[in-house]
Amino acid sequence: xRELGFSVxxxxxxxxxxxxxxxxRKDKDWEVGEIVRVVxxxxxKDRKVLGTAQIMGKQPRTLxxxxxxxxxxxxxxEDGFESLxxxxxxxxxxxxxxxxxxPMNKLTILWVSRDTYCFQCGVxxxxxxxxxxxxxxxxxxxxAPD
Length: 146
Ligand SMILES: [Zn+2]
Hints:
The chain has four helices and seven strands.
């Protein structure tokens, strides 16, 4: 399973379905139907697997002006940016002026299963707020300080 990395913990990741704009991969590009592992900071020590998802859609887009398939202001908002201009600036800062205008794909991602983590200790749980150990504590003494 390939990994789809995110460098920002976007609020959109809390939605069941969300979008992400990606330049085509050099090896083999993302495919509709592909199941991916969604990972926060994939190549760093604070790497965190967020869950498993499926790529539901892939549509060509660019940030270049006058292109046949421009990113729309609505798509920029849906993707978590405050405006298309802010998205454009973010991409330019990250990839440089030239690359920021290269063809991208708008990928639509649907969670298949999300990994959850104990609020107390960070251990992986199965959809629960707390791990087994801390759920006992939480039930008995919900509002007590540590
Ligand atoms: Zn815990």
